[in-house]
Each structure stands twice: as C-alpha cells, then as structure tokens.
C-alpha cells in the first residue's frame, strides 16, 4: 500500500554503524522501504558511514591546532552527504523513488554558532512536497544552515536531534532511532556485557543519562522529544523483532532499582585555578568569562588554598572546549590575581542516574563503596536529585563502571560468579 498525502509520517534515524558498508546500506534501504510499503510517508535521517566523522575530525586535527568554525563544519557535514546519497541510490535500485537532502535542502535552520548549533526552525515545504509526490526522503543528520547560509553542525551524535526535530516539525507519528544495540541498557554493553536492556525509560532519566555521557542518544534529542511529547524509540537495525526501548513521560515511583543507568564520559577536562583571592566576585569572574565564550562548566569544587586567604577553584569542561577554556583562564588569572592554572585531561566522569534515588539515602555511599572495592580514588563528586557523578583517573573509568554495575545490578552478574566459580573448580 503506497502512502498518499493524508498518510501518517514516520521518521527513522540510522546511525553510522547501521550504514557502515554497502551490505548494511542495502539492509537499511530494505527497512525504510518496508515502512513505506506499510503506507507511511517515510523520512529517514542518516548519519555518516561507520567512523567517517571520526576520520574527518582526525584529518582536521592534523591540519590545525584547534579545529573549529565555518570550515570545520563544512568538512564534517560532508560525511552525512555521502551516506544519504548512498542510501537513496540503494532505494532507487529497489524500484522506489528516493530523494536525498542536505541540511539546506531539508530546510533545517540553526543558530549561527558553529560546531554545536541548535536547530531554530525547520521549513518543511520541500520535504512535504516530495513526500506527497511519493518520494522516500533521506535527510542528512547532524547538520543545518545558519542565517548566512553556511553549514553548521549540531555537536557529535547530533543526528538523533535532527531526527527528533524533524518528527516534531512534520508532526510525524513517531521517531525510531536505529542503532547497533537493541535499545538503551543499564550501561554501555560494550563495557559491561551483563548490562540489562531497559524496555521503558522516562525522558527525564534518559536526558540525564545522555547528558552524563551515555552516547546512546544525543541529549538535545531527548530534550526536544520531551518538550514536544514525541514518541521516541531506540532500537536495533540488526534485530527487528526486538521492540527496543521506549521513552515515556512518567517516572514509575516504586521502582525496585534506585539506579536506572550508569554512564562514563571520557571526554572531559579538569581545570583548577589555584590561589584565588578569597573575596566576593572571584567565582563570578571565572565562570562569567567562560560563559561569555559559550563554554559550559560541569562539576565545580572550591577548597581552601595552600596560602591563607586563598581558595582553589576546580571544575570540568568538555574536552573540545579545553583549548578555549585555557585561553580564557590565562586572561582571568591575571585579572583576579590567582597564582596558577592546572589542567588534566586524563580523567573520566562516571555517573549513576535514577529517579528511584530521590529520597533514598545511602545510594551515594553505595557508589563510593563500589569504587573503594575496586581500589579507585575519587577526585571530584557532584550530585543532583537523580544523578551522582564521580571523577576518576581515565584508565580506571571502565573498571569503575563495572564495579558500580555489579553493586546496583547484582542479579545480572550472578551467573558470571557461578561461571567464574565453575572455572576455578568450586
Ligand atoms: P549510532 O552510530 O547508531 O549513532 P552510537 O555509537 O552513537 O551509535 O550509539 C550506540 C552505542 O552506544 C552502542 O554501540 C553502545 O556501545 C553505546 N552505549 C553507551 N551507553 C549505552 C547504553 N546505556 N545503552 C545502550 N548503548 C550504549
Ligand atoms: N556523524 C556525526 C557523529 O559521528 C553525527 C551522528 O552520527 O549523530 O557525531
Ligand atoms: Mg549516535
């Protein structure tokens, strides 16, 4: 059954691993065509093939010290242009009509800011016309154009956000995000094979998990889905029988588990402004200057400095902002009369997230105990109502996640212990 102009719209998104080679592209083409055959006007947002965005990032890194701005976006945006055209060719070959669109052709307008622009508006006319003409529309993820008509990108992992924003703008029935795992797990299954798949997760918990580094969904995508009440599902490209993980509005109060998910973020940098004079206005000067450069700060700790009447102020930023943060801090240091600035990129932020931890004392202590049992030292701690984060040495990040997972999801590891015991002959 072919869709007509009254048919519901579905937006699907396929990540880089789903379109990594010609065979995988053909598989994705079949999934899209199946949806179209069920009578849906179908829009598919495609990410760059395999690791090709990483390759473009590495190329830029070999060409300049601090890649960024217009030309960096122009370079990164090419990855998705390759993949949409490739999927369109595969669909056309199957005898269907497909059209590929880049961010401009799809009418995706963003802020002027490069490298992590937000989508402001999607002008859907071109998209709708093609859908109503019977086309399957393939849209580049991760990119848009700004008020100057230049390409912008939405931040790494931003194709998810393109898909959710299109779902809202097109008033589509739902948004299915296809990837190489069966949905959202209690932690990254590559790090902890015993991770448990979550059937339903609240937007708010998913948003926190995404923000603290679970790369499984882009934080802004979840935020947009929550705001627009958009049906959002994360599922597997390679196991179509599995319904995946559905985002839901409400948080179930009586969960058995206080912790829903655990994430590890290795792309943070820690700065310390040491020997700051202990007077009003110093923190405002430091963080105001960083904010003026659009640099978001995460964990913050102020402690007594070595010299009397001074403080040390330590905090973390995303590692892509580290170069700019250092530049800003050098200037601030002289202005406020601080002693020195130190930085450390060999860190990992490990976080637990769960609406079930509200009003449940002891969760933080359990997390710290799990780290202690692994012999892992904590450098910084931050908490919010449904999240606790600890900064640890980078090479201990994965061990930290495993230890914490075992603490909060012991049942998932039970058979592992039996197997280990069997192996050693108990
Ligand atoms: P895509 O290329 O489809 O966008 P990503 O690499 O961005 O895929 O995200 C999928 C990967 O996210 C998975 O392969 C998995 O290793 C990782 N991941 C990290 N945390 C989680 C989690 N909590 N649940 C599921 N996957 C996770
Ligand atoms: N290709 C981009 C990246 O690798 C965007 C995405 O895949 O979501 O970050
Ligand atoms: Mg992704």
Q: What can you tell me about this protein's structure?
A:
The structure is a single chain. By secondary structure, the chain is of the alpha/beta class. The protein has a domain at 9-180: Carbamate kinase, CATH 3.40.1160.10. 36% of the residues lie in helices and 25% in strands. The chain has 12 helices and 20 strands. The strands form 5 sheets. It has an 8-stranded mixed β-sheet with strand order 3-6-2-1-9-11-12-10, with helices on both faces. It has a 4-stranded antiparallel β-sheet with strand order 13-18-20-19, sandwiched between helices. A hairpin with a 2-residue loop joins β19 (380-384) and β20. α5 (159-169) runs parallel beside α7. The longest helix is centred in the N-terminal third of the chain and has 25 residues, at 69-93. The chain is globular and about 75 Å long. The model is unreliable at 418-426 (pLDDT under 50). Aspartic acid (ASP) binds at residues 15-16, 47-48, 53, 79, 141-142, 156-159.
Sum this structure up briefly.
With 426 residues, this protein is of the alpha/beta class. It has helices spanning 22-37, 52-63, 69-93, 125-132, 159-169, 203-211, 219-227, 282-292, 322-336, 363-373, 397-408, 410-423; strands at 9-14, 41-46, 98-101, 108-110, 119-122, 136-140, 143-145, 151-153, 174-179, 200-202, 232-236, 245-248, 261-265, 268-277, 297-304, 310-318, 340-344, 347-353, 380-384, 387-393.
Number of strands: 20
CATH superfamily of the domain at 9-180: Acetylglutamate kinase-like
Query: How is the CATH topology of the domain at 9-180 named?
Result: Carbamate kinase
- Spatial separation of the terminal alpha carbons: 61 Å
Looking at the overall shape, the CATH architecture of the domain at 9-180 is 3-Layer(aba) Sandwich
Strand content: 25-35%
CATH class of the domain at 9-180: Alpha Beta
What coarse outline follows from CA principal-axis ratios? globular
Helix content: 25-40%
The hetero molecules present are: adenosine-5'-diphosphate, aspartic acid, magnesium ion
Largest sheet: 8 strands, mixed
């Amino acid at each position: 059954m072919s869709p007509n102009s009254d048919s519901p719209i579905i937006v699907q998104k396929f990540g880089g691993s789903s379109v990594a080679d010609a065979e995988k592209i053909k598989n994705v083409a079949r999934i899209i065509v199946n949806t179209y055959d069920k009578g849906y006007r179908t829009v598919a947002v495609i990410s760059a093939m395999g690791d090709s965005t990483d390759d473009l990032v590495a190329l830029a890194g070999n060409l300049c010290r601090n890649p960024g701005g217009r030309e960096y976006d122009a370079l990164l945006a090419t990855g998705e242009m390759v993949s949409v055209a490739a999927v369109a060719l595969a669909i056309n070959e199957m005898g269907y009509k497909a059209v590929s669109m880049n961010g401009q052709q799809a009418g995706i307008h963003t802020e002027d800011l490069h490298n992590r622009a937000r989508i402001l508006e999607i002008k859907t006319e071109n998209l709708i016309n093609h859908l109503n003409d019977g086309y399957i529309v393939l849209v580049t993820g991760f990119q848009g154009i700004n008020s100057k008509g230049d390409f912008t990108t939405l931040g790494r992992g931003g194709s998810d956000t393109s898909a959710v924003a299109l779902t809202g703008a097109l008033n589509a029935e739902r948004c299915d995000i296809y990837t190489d795992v069966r949905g959202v797990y209690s932690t990254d299954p590559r790090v902890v094979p015993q991770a448990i798949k979550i059937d339903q997760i609240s937007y708010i918990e998913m948003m926190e998990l995404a923000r603290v580094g679970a790369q499984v969904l882009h934080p802004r995508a979840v935020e947009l889905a929550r705001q627009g009440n958009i049906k959002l599902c994360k599922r597997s490209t390679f196991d179509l029988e599995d319904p995946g993980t559905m985002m839901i509005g409400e948080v179930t109060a009586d969960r058995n588990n206080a912790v829903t998910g655990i994430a590890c973020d290795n792309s943070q940098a820690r700065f310390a402004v040491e020997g700051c004079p202990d007077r009003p206005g110093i923190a405002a000067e430091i963080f105001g200057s960083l904010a003026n450069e659009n640099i978001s700060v995460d964990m913050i700790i102020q402690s007594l400095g070595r010299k009397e009447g001074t403080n040390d102020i330590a905090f973390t930023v995303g590692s892509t902002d580290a170069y700019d943060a250092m530049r800003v801090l050098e200037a601030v240091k002289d202005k406020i009369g601080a002693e020195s600035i130190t930085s450390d990129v060999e860190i990992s932020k490990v976080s637990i997230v769960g609406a079930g931890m509200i009003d449940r004392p002891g969760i933080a202590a359990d997390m710290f105990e799990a780290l202690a049992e692994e012999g892992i030292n904590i450098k910084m701690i931050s908490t919010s109502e449904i999240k606790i984060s600890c900064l640890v040495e980078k090479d201990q990040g994965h061990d930290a996640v495993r230890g914490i997972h075992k603490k909060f999801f012991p049942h998932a590891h039970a058979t592992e212990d039996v197997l280990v015991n069997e192996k050693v002959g108990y």
